[in-house]
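Good morning,

Both structures are done.
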Amino acid sequence: MSALRPLNVVVAGTGFGRVYLDALAKQDPAFRLTGLLARGGTTSRSIAAALGVPLYVAPENVPDSTDIVCVVVRSGATGGPGSELAAHFLRRGIHVLQEHPVHHDEIAPCLKAARQGNAAYAVNTLHPNLAPARRFLAVAKVAIQQQKPAYLDIACNSQMLYPLLDLAGRALGGMRPWSFGEPMAGQGGHPLTTLHGCMNEVPLCLRVQNAVHPDDPDNHSFLLGQMAIGFEGGVLALPELHGPVLWHARLHAPRTAEGRLITSGPATERLAEPSTEMLGPPPGDSWHVAFEETWPRAVLVALHDLKDSIDDPVRRRAANIWAMDVSQCWNEASQRLGMPAIIRPDIPPPIPLDALHAAADSIASTEGTRL
């Protein structure tokens, strides 16, 4: 495939597919949006018209000159035809980036179709490619070179389980072997269910809000995703997928011959390090920025990874194995958790940020005085 021209990309789906369209609107010279595949409703027609690209209402109508199709249509795991679409294009020799979640029983025929068409295929879990998550992965790699992880903590909602397990596997340098124990429901109304297990020989604690609003599945979660890796020297934490990345140095002070802790002076150099250090820039972007900038740029990272694998059989094979591992791990964890509970809560009221700042500032203003 020529590297002298941008790759022609068609996006299938106009729901979450809008994030992919926003990604291609960033004018990355490696890619060019050349069409939209949708059912032909009013929304898809207006989007195609606004973008100045053709609207295809059947996969057979997508031209063979297409290099990549981004399949952002629900897979069979969530009741959609996304995997059938992916296999159709792969058999035609068109490379496919498919949005998660995808069951491993659907990935297998997609890989067969990819071999038939000599095409590259990848499942996009999006969130591990967010800039803060990539920063977390970079730091984790360095930390693991120094020390073996002691434990891994993950907290997420049920929809984010797939990408969080992907992120965990990347952070640990692999997923296998993995295992999950019996679920422990939250007590006293606590909304998170706990699974203990192991990933890549690292003890794992997974807490999941296993509940969904059937008419509003993208809302009503207490959190998207959090992750922490414990080491002998401290804890590397990603308290929110949009950052920041934090390093919590482990407290350890020497003792005198009488058993008293030594908190200053010789042999206490490690106590001079910050107890918590932010690695990289601080967070602060709004959800508007996340939707318009952060998420689309994560899509571009996935597209570049797919592009790099097109002419590299080794990368392609590794991506295929990884996609199967992530899906199988997710499936086993999901089976342990069981079906999400159905919830129909009211719209959550916001807590005014000004009030939180005022409360924090009231403590800062009294430092150095007796309360």
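Second structure follows.
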Amino acid sequence: MHFDLVDRVVEASAEGAVTLKAVSLAEEYLQDHFPSYPVLPGVLMLEAMVQAGRVVGKQRGVREPLVLGEVRALKYNRFVPPGSVIRAVVTLGKTGEEGMLDFRGRVELVDPLQPDMVETAASGRFTLRPIRLGSCSAEVGTAGPMA
């Protein structure tokens, strides 16, 4: 299942990105999280940062799909209710072997009427890595004729 957590890319470079997402009560994942008090699931705040990180990957010319490799020091500070606008801000730290991209990121709760009033909803560090399709040996999964 794919959740699109980027409505708009505000800034994009090879070093960082800023994206926006309006969280609507119509979002399928809010129907049961939680039924009497709907909030954006924390893992989707992380996914918003990951999707912003993929924007950076595209800016850097990465062709392979980027997948989440590692998450470190992830902190959730605040619930994000429907009707909120979130801003994912990611900054590329270092690049590693085999195309690894290490990011610092945060998800901010933004009040469109007061853009200077920002609260951090989640923050942390994460690594994206290119998925290498077809890198497995041709012999994997072939057991030969059955006896």
